[in-house]
Specification:
The protein is 26% helix and 9% strand. The protein has a two-stranded antiparallel sheet. The protein is α+β, with helices and mostly antiparallel strands. The chain has three helices and two strands; from the N terminus they run αβααβ. The structure holds FE2/S2 (inorganic) cluster. FE2/S2 (inorganic) cluster is lined by residues 3, 17-19, 21, 23-28, 51, 64, 66.
């Protein structure tokens, strides 16, 4: 997942992925460019969509980084 990329590369993004991918925090919110969003392999599931609703600055191309593979 994108969260794994951040963790495995020691990227210092303050507070990113606070719930460690258990879909309970939305701190891993990512806004994609439309063309990149259109290329994602899977759409957001119900659990992800519910948590995205709580994300700050939600857009039509928002996803949770811990759910994007
Ligand atoms: Fe918490 Fe993605 S890391 S929802």
């Amino acid at each position: 997942t994108l969260l794994d990329v951040v963790v495995n590369n020691d990227l210092d993004i303050d507070g990113y992925g606070a719930c460690e991918g258990t879909v309970t925090c939305s701190t891993c919110h990512v806004v994609f460019k439309q063309e990149d969003f259109d290329r994602l392999a899977e759409e957001a599931g119900d659990e992800e969509r519910d948590m995205l609703d709580l994300a700050y600055g939600l857009t039509d191309t928002s996803r949770l980084g811990c759910q994007v593979t």
